[in-house]
Amino acid sequence: MLPTVADVLALDTVRRGDPRVVAGTDRLDSRVRWVHVGEVTDIAHLLRGGELVLTTGIALPDDPVRLTEYIAELVAVGASGLIVELGRKFIGELPRAVVAAAEERGLPLITLARETPFVQITESVHARIIDVQLEELRASEQLHEVFTQLSVEGASPAKVLGQVARLSGHPALLENLTHQVLACETAGRDPGTLLAGWESRSRTVSPGARTAYDAASGWLVTMVGARGQDWGRLILLCDAEPGPRDIVLAERAATTLALSRLLERHQESLERRAHGTIITGILTHAYADPEEAAARARAVGVPLTGRNLVSAVLRLTEPADGPLNGQEQLARLGELADAAAAACREARLPALIGALDQNRVGLLLPLPPRVPAESALTTLSEKLGAAFTPPFVLAAGSVVESVRDVRRSFLEAEQVADVAVGRPDGRAFYRLPDLRLRGLLHLLRDDARLQTFAERELGPLLAHDAQRGGDLAGILRVYLDAGRNKAVAAQRAHLSRPAFYDRLRRLERVLDTDLDDVESCLSLHVALLALESIRRDDPRP
After folding, report:
1. pLDDT at 326 over 70
2. Per mean pLDDT, which range of 262-266, 290-294, 428-432 is the poorest?
3. Exposure b/e, 412-423, CB count within 10 A at least 16 = b
4. Are residues 267 and 286 in contact, defined by beta-carbon separation less than 8 angstroms?
5. How far is the C-alpha of 419 from the C-alpha of 438, rounded, in Å?
6. What average pLDDT does the segment 375-396 reach?
7. Cβ distance 53 to 43 under 8 Å?
8. What is the DSSP letter of 430?
């Protein structure tokens, strides 16, 4: 920050002159951009504003009117103050007209009772000003390096705001144009207090310029956008009026955020990313207090407190023409998340919606009063199915009453989705009871006892297929799925009956069992279902 008139008066070189403020004592906080020595009456046209003028007064007129005009001209060009050394022109004190004019116009007026080399004052003040400018230059260079690196990395809004908070020491928030918080860095503040009533508070702050400080709220606000299309606001919550460095910091961060948005293609929207961050925070216990998660969700327009909560997972089923590559999968998943958000808005269901990983989209729905989970999920599935063409499954966990229990509900929904995506049957949505035996086996898929059972029942068959390149396990699956009806099974396997019967006899020899025995077939069928759950990436035996 540039030194003030008060800072100049505190310098040793000035204090030796025995300075005395005779007017404008309430304006000593005026900033001094430069010090100018002038022994001419018409000095005003040589100034640009912010100068502290030094003079012995030797060239000043005696006429009170002209002295008043001299002071008025200095004020008109924005001079920060006037220092007059007594002893040459004015002995003992300044004319009353000068003092009165300066007091009336708010110009700091100082007298020096002792002779003081002006060169020493100018050197001292200019050295301080240059030091400030060098410090600002170094700070600007630091900001340039930090935010250039963030731009190159394609940093997330959360990471950008983290740097803003670290460099400024102030909480930083990014909101969209409807005043919902997309990202937030609290800088050690309590999130609940910081975000309480955010939307209504934010709507009252409307600075006129693209970057402006609102003294009433203590907010430094800068618009975020590019190509003439603003899409958000970056806000620094300041304890006092921000300095030039804070303003540069906010504008540089806003530019980085705008650039990141321009570079996004098939990535999630900022809203989805903000929602996904909150969901991930809940699942990974990133929030020390569940109330922090509730406060962050409330800031994006999703109330979690006082509502029944149901977690859901969306998974894409494999297209008929083969699996998608990585980029196609991410793009399709992003489209599914956006479609789910649109469906929730159409159904007037507030929800947190974001990608959980490369295969799943997570939803956390706070149920409106008197709206059962089944009704909300059915409505969501219908509207999403009408808007999103590629096949998908919607799986739901149990209804819970607290954010503390959301993680359990999500884990249940993920398990249901993993089973349902392998063999979807066209339901609007799936829950654990709908999966019956498959659901139980999926929950037990990591149990060593279930794995041992499946290996004991099917191990010889799988080894036989592996050694000979056959698919007797597939024949067994077709036979059991057909309810042990050999004619139907042969038709489904696209084999003649004699050929199919021959394969069944080979199955019996390899497994050393009787396929006409109901209990044996039941045991083999359970083992096949267990193997599907264990083979997560490829549910086919």
Report:
1. no
2. 262-266
3. bbbbbbbbbbbe
4. no
5. 7
6. 90
7. yes
8. B
